[in-house]
Amino acid sequence: MAAVAAAFPSGHHVSSPPNPKSNPSCLFYPAFLKAPSKGLSIPSNPLQPCRLPPHFTAAAAADSPNDSSFTSFDLLSDKPREECGVVGIIGDNDAAYLCSVALHALQHRGQEGAGIVSSHRPNDGGRASLRTVTGLGLVSHVFQDKSKLDYLSGSAAIGHVRYSTAGAASSLANVQPFLAGYRFGQLAVAHNGNLVNYSSLRARLEDSGSIFNTSSDTEVILHLIANSSSRPLISRIVEACESLQGAYSLVFLTENKLFAVRDSHGFRPLVLGRLRRPSGGIVFASESCALDLIEADYEREINPGEVVVVDGRDMSVTSLCLMPPKPRKACIFEHIYFALPNSIVFGRQVYSSRYSFGATLARESPAEADVVIPVPDSGFYAALGYASESGIPFQQGLIRSHYVGRTFIQPEQNIRDLAVRLKLAPVKGILEGKSVVVVDDSIVRGTTSSKIVALIKDAGAREVHMRIASPPIIGSCYYGVDTPRSEELISNRMDVEGVKRAIGCDSLAFLSLESLRGLLGEEAPTFCDACFSGNYPVPPIENEVIRMEAVE
Fold this sequence. Notes:
It contains 21 helices and 28 strands. It is of the alpha+beta class and 552 residues long. It starts with a helix and ends with a helix. In the C-terminal section; belongs to the purine/pyrimidine phosphoribosyltransferase family.
């Protein structure tokens, strides 16, 4: 094991935890869970410390409060952030490799960390064990060394891409999947979502002796499973999930089985597919675009409250609806911004939703203009719909650079204002002298929108008419989306006219909430639109939110 670990650069964690049956002091990784009275104890040797890879060192220094010469500026700071994506594959000997490819397809859901846990069975036919590789950065960086995927050989694997909330971006300990060992064996978990009662659950567990090693709410799930007295494992998982409030789409991996679980409201997506390879392996993923990339056929969504178990020994699939059903409240922002347009999410084609949002916006809020342009990339299909419905020509008036991500620049305002120009380049031949309709998916703080308006006007546009293919965002999300506090949301503080003046455009219109719900038809009540309406299916608890921010 030491030789394997030495082959990988610092900033990545490679681990194959000891088998708890042969080592009674085995414990959850990355958490030190329970006192010895519960069958777990703290090991004599500390776990491998978390270190940053060299190319993250400058970034970490830039964020350091002790370094006043640099600051972090996020080019996409005015967009909500999906916090993660998950994949689970079983029944194919290339499971880890396929998992890494599927994670590439989900990279838009998280760019700050990635990891895979696999079930590895030795060549002598001995008992399988779980192995893990996690790291900071993009999937291509974490798994650029082929030896890592070779190390993860096996017929089952789960994977995760992560976008962290503030304060935890450089913490390797928070990168999933989390791999655990406890008195009944090994268990790995990857989670997409957010638990609104995380702080109270963590406090209760700490009061009973649990010791936490991360600031991730996912670790709570592992503690709850470890503390459960139910048997078998599926009963322990269900019992743990019954304590959770909020959003969770989960994949669990043991030595022989793969589990997929979705919360009773179905906030976050999770789909099931089957590989077209001879193995016919089963795949779970946050979006169907991950299935497409690894040549798997989309079969269906995992239903809210459903637990699906795949036994790798005979590939039997068991579906259990063990959690009490509640009204589905799927996140509408998946169709507005998060999901890739080639995905099927909540049973709907994402590109079709965005096109219809734009077309309806054109009927609802027309503009006299010469050209319609999108804010790339998420405004593209809405702009196509707007142009088609309005009869105004569609053009690519802004070109996005795909090679610029988060930049760390000096804090002088005149330099920082150039950041949007690093990401978006105007095409003067399309914009100069024109009245331009600019279609974007949303406005959060308004900071980026104001820079885009200025960018287009500087390119010679006569007028800029902003059209937003979603309603005004007036509330934060507590179900797995990183959004600013409500008081930071520009539409929470201003009416449409005030926002128009703030961002400097000639006219501004949002898709109305009534129209959005009308486009969803009979399914409208099954979508969560709390960020637009303020109607939260699971009410956020203010002291929970404050404490979580303190932990982060």
